[in-house]
Amino acid sequence: MENFVFQTVLSGWNKFYAFLTALNLNTISIYTFFIIVAILTLISSFFSMAETALIALNRYQLKQRATAGYRDAKLTEILLSKHNNLPGILVLINNFITAACTALIIIISLRLINHNILAISVGVIVSTLSTIIFSELIPKALGLIYSDVIGRKSSFILLPLLKLLTPFVDGLEVIVKKSLSLLKNKNKSTPDNISSLTPEEIKSFLLNQGRYLYSRHRSILFKLFSLDQMTIEDVMIPRAQIESLNLNLPIEDIRAQLLTSHHTRLPVYKDDFDNIIGLLHIKHCLKIGESSNFNADDILPLLKTPYFVPCTTPILIQIQNFQSHQQRMALVVDEYGQLMGLITLDDILEELIGEFTTSPNNVRERFQSDADGSILLEGSLPLRLINSRLGIHLPIQTAKTLNGLILEYLETIPEGNISCKIEGYIIEIVHIQEKSIRLAKIHINKMQQEK
Fold first, then answer.
1. Closest among 313, 309, 344 to 329, alpha carbons compared
2. Which pLDDT tens digit goes with each residue over 318-341?
3. R_g over Cα of the chain
4. pTM, 2 dp
């Protein structure tokens, strides 16, 4: 088969050479040469534009349009799948046209200028400039800007043309394959081959090529691929912020808490908060809570077995665990079995799409701006939330909250209101209570001025 292709190409070249030999260029007017050069330049521009567009073509969008039934997308997929070395073939064809233009421009120069050396020099300069401007820079720029449209529409011309030039194209592909085999290139991937992408590559794709997505949708997808690096400890509600029900409280206090609670489920304990005996769904005890004979023992039959999870569980795994256990809430424990916090399915969803507007502790109220440009924050706020809301980059490798970050940096519990500088961010301690930092300020304006 390869010998037949070579013989066909060689035969065609011999006939073309015989035609050129028999042609008398002196009988052709100079205006005809100008017209031929202009036509060849336009053809060269088309091939350059198509070559760049096919290389820069968005393969994912192309496949989607082909699946939707668009004819131009289907033809482009056929074009790319049948001719693996299509860009290289277009470059070779374009080079032949450019060489022909150069020869014709030199002939025109010889006609206009009697001095042979000067004529050839002028012809080469003019040919080079016209090739660079009209056959390279302008067409390639257009092909890059309008790659999706030009890449698809050019298939209507390129596919029939390549079929017409099948012997020549096959000969070029055989030469390319032979050359690659000599170079021991074992890479058999094709431009149409959409290889598997790593999560980091997908993130980069969303950032750089996600212009067809709404910014909010792109943000959700980007956060989704970030979940594999997060554990329950990163998004859980800390132990100190858990609203729970102590059955040893007076019955009136229990009744008031049930009627005023902002949550639908509460952990229930006796005496010690580490002694969680169950989870209570508020709606199940509203009727008995209004009864005059209501007592704490009436709550015990309504409790559900608490679901405990280790703090090191990855978020994606926990989503599957919630589904398999048919749970929406879990109590988080450390390696010693001590209660660290609480996590719900809503907490994970909020990590993806942001705080729900119905949240009782609205995050906007926990970010208060002062006149000097500083931001007043609660010490219990997660660092991930602070970074996301303020657009800053506090370290999150070890500490999870602002309080934890400051204590880790100071390596002691501060006795008074002091300021510190962490990773270039000026943080002022405003209020300390019960051995923890309750309020702190971040001076963003001062940091920007120092920069």
1. 344
2. 999 999 998 889 999 988 888 999
3. 36
4. 0.54
